[in-house]
Amino acid sequence: MKVIQVGIGGMGNAWLRAVQESPNVEYAALVEVNDAIAAAQVERFNLQGIAVYRTLPEALKAVKVDGVINVTPPQFHQEVSVTALEAGIPVLSEKPLADTFEAAQAIVDKANATGVLHMITQNYRYRSATQTLKQTLASKAMGEIGSATVEFFRGPHFGGFREEMPYPLIIDMSIHHFDLMRFFLDNDPVSVFGRSWNPPWSWYKGDASASVTLEFMNNVFVSYNGSWCSQGREIGWNAHWRFECERGVVFMEDDVVYTQPTGGAPAEVSPVKMERTEQAYLLHEFYEAVTHGAQPATTSQDNIKSLAIVFDVVRSFETGQVVKSSA
Ligand SMILES: NC(=O)c1ccc[n+]([C@@H]2O[C@H](COP(=O)([O-])OP(=O)(O)OC[C@H]3O[C@@H](n4cnc5c(N)ncnc54)[C@H](O)[C@@H]3O)[C@@H](O)[C@H]2O)c1
User: Fold this and answer.
1) pLDDT > 90? residue 160
2) Domain containing 109 — which CATH number?
3) Rounded average pLDDT over 137-145
């Protein structure tokens, strides 16, 4: 299968590695607007035989491809994805689906109208720790889930767009955790309520801390507390999760999953072994979908429900109201 990757900077590195390691996928061309980044990456990944174009339409005119991998910043997702879909080319796009709900809806509408696959790379789902937690919850070893608490505290200094954007934690990062909530609970929220704030020492322009309560359709309440300008005791990217269940507790701390029955001791759950994880998993899923018609879990038609949580939470911050789910 031949692909074009659009955007080969930052996160583009992970996809350059995944494609080069894949036995099934190879590059037909690359697209990058920044010539210095293009030259450096071609050198670094030994891609001298692959043409780099400035725009996707130019690349699509020059080569025949089976898929497009979109690794541009969120504000370019709509333009790149819609161009590919209109040309009938399936798209594997980085999260978030788009930078606004309207842009995300436009991509989903285009995918529906053309019948061409558009899927999102929610890579946090495809890690051993999160798969282990998912399987433990699905086994109902501790019974039905009543509520959950998620904690995520880190203090990264990214520089760049994240330090300028509004609500950097919720818009850029929490999409992964909100998507994981839908994955773990196998359910969608009915409403959200949240407050956000920016600690006095914050190096972000927008609010970098938040507290959100989500009510899911199965009456499970989730409490989410996080900050992207924490000054210590950092928590891993997958966050800490605690599920209050009928007959005990299921929790994940530092990527280790435990069960603790009522009155009993915590027991570690053996981690799930995975043949492929993260980008390699998603690239293989994309390949299976394009070549054999398999249905991926994170199509944009499904993923817009995760992105809707982000924008509903922002609406709650800005109105001070409980916001009913818009998905
Ligand atoms: N899944 C994850 O864990 C994860 C982690 C980091 C970033 N991301 C996502 O990856 C995407 C890219 O983020 P990043 O951190 O790599 O950003 P970045 O700014 O570091 O890199 C983006 C690259 O795309 C290029 N570019 C911009 N517009 C373009 C266009 N129209 N056509 C071609 N190239 C273009 C830029 O020159 C740059 O090289 C974002 O959507 C981000 O949210 C995901």
Assistant:
1) no
2) 3.40.50.720
3) 97
Indicate the SS3 state at residue 84. helix
Which pair of structure tokens corresponds to residue 140? 């109902």
Placement of tokens 């891609």 in the chain: 47
Query: What percent of the chain shows pLDDT beyond 90?
Result: 98
What torsion, rounded to 10 degrees, do the Cα atoms 303, 308, 310, 313 define? -150
CB of 94 within 6 A of ligand 1: the answer is: yes
Q: What is the pLDDT of residue 161?
A: 83
Predicted TM-score (pTM) of this structure: 0.96
Q: Which of 120, 136, 164 is the last residue of a domain?
A: 120
Which residue of 35, 72, 121, 174 sits with most ligand 1 atoms within 8 Å of its CB, as the best mutation to test the pocket? Answer: 72
- Same domain? For 106 and 142 the reply is no
Q: Whose CA is nearest to atom 24 of ligand 1?
A: 7
Q: At what angle do helices 128-138 and 174-185 cross, to 10 degrees?
A: 30
Residue 278: the pLDDT is 96
DSSP 218: T
- Angle at 188 (CA atoms; ends 149, 298), nearest 5 degrees: 105
